[in-house]
Automatic annotation (TrEMBL):
<feature type="transmembrane region" description="Helical">
    <location>
        <begin position="168"/>
        <end position="187"/>
    </location>
</feature>
<dbReference type="GO" id="GO:0012505">
    <property type="term" value="C:endomembrane system"/>
</dbReference>
<keyword id="KW-0472">Membrane</keyword>
<keyword id="KW-1133">Transmembrane helix</keyword>
<dbReference type="GO" id="GO:0030026">
    <property type="term" value="P:intracellular manganese ion homeostasis"/>
</dbReference>
<protein>
    <submittedName>
        <fullName>Predicted Fe2+/Mn2+ transporter, VIT1/CCC1 family</fullName>
    </submittedName>
</protein>
<feature type="transmembrane region" description="Helical">
    <location>
        <begin position="226"/>
        <end position="248"/>
    </location>
</feature>
<feature type="transmembrane region" description="Helical">
    <location>
        <begin position="193"/>
        <end position="214"/>
    </location>
</feature>
<dbReference type="GO" id="GO:0005384">
    <property type="term" value="F:manganese ion transmembrane transporter activity"/>
</dbReference>
<dbReference type="InterPro" id="IPR008217">
    <property type="entry name" value="Ccc1_fam"/>
</dbReference>
<keyword id="KW-0812">Transmembrane</keyword>
<dbReference type="Pfam" id="PF01988">
    <property type="entry name" value="VIT1"/>
</dbReference>
Length: 252
């Protein structure tokens, strides 16, 4: 196992493999949007289910409230994610344009910025000047260098629409799962809630496992952490519904 893994790493670092990887276009990452939408969707609908059960509402009320929140919150979250990504892209574009103007108006000042940036990285003397000359020869490379090194911004393009669509789809698909037991009229209210609880717990754990695979984290630990966070949010919703029923007589 160790030998095959080492061989795989060696192959990934072969000059030709490195060349293909570095020249390949940057892919827009949608996994974080899917994870965010899935977790929030499951928390949202199961929180409604927990609150309704704690308050003593019927299954039909829990189902209606759950689907209403699923659609409204999912759309709201998708729009918010779209606006957030769009704002990031506009900020990057603005900084990029500003750096282009600075290079045109004060090229020596911008060269000095490059010089000081790479001096901090350990370059000095003729090597430092050669680095400055090479970077400043290509305006695109020059601007991208200033974006990443001076401003700490990424240079790859963002996709607000794709991020919003991914968030909305994950929110709906995962968020719908805890509501499915409430469509089974043969189950009692307690059985519906326990089934919904089991499904929600499974969703939280699976999302945590997916996150661990993508970001190379411990699988069980990541799954349990996501499960605990989702369970805490759902527990607060249940307690709120229960206390509202006990204190104010809300419910059936």
């Amino acid at each position: 196992m160790k030998k095959s893994r080492y061989t795989s790493i060696e192959e990934e670092h072969h000059p030709e493999a490195i060349r293909r990887r570095l020249h390949a276009p940057n892919k827009v990452q949608t996994v974080p949007d899917a994870i965010l939408g899935g977790i929030d969707g499951c928390v949202t609908t199961f929180a409604v289910v927990s609150g309704a059960f704690g308050a003593g509402f019927s299954a039909s009320v829990a189902l209606v409230l759950g689907f209403a929140n699923l659609l409204a919150d999912g759309f709201s979250m998708a729009v918010s994610n779209y606006e957030s990504i769009q704002a990031q892209q506009e900020h990057i574009d603005g900084v990029r344009e500003s750096e282009r103007r600075h290079i045109e108006q004060v090229p020596e000042g911008e060269r000095e910025e490059v010089r000081q940036i790479f001096r901090q990285k350990g370059f000095d003397g003729d090597m430092l000047e050669r680095v400055v000359d090479i970077i400043s020869q290509d305006p695109t490379v020059w601007v991208d260098t200033m974006l990443t090194e001076e401003h700490g911004l990424q240079t790859q393009a963002l996709s607000p629409l794709r991020s919003a669509a991914t968030t909305f789809a994950a929110f709906l698909i995962v968020g719908m799962m805890p509501l499915l037991p409430y469509t089974l009229a043969a189950l009692s209210a307690t059985q519906q809630f326990l089934a919904s609880l089991t499904v929600a717990a499974l969703m939280f754990f699976l999302i945590g496992m997916l996150k661990s695979v993508v970001y190379h984290q411990p699988v069980v630990q990541s799954g349990l952490r996501t499960l605990l966070m989702g369970g805490a949010a759902s527990g607060l919703a249940f307690a709120t519904g229960y206390l509202a029923h006990a204190w104010f007589g809300v419910g059936i």
